[in-house]
Amino acid sequence: MHIKDTTKTGKPFIIRKAIKSDAKNLVEFASLTFKTSDATTLTSNGEFNLTTEQEEEFIQKMNEDTDNCICMIAEQSGQIISLLGFHGHQKRKAKHTGEFGISVHPDLQDQGIGRKMIIALIDWARSHPIIERVELSVSTNNPRGIYLYESLGFEREGYKKKAMKLDTGEYTDVILMCLLV
Question: What average pLDDT score do residues 77-87 get?
Answer without folding.
Answer: 94
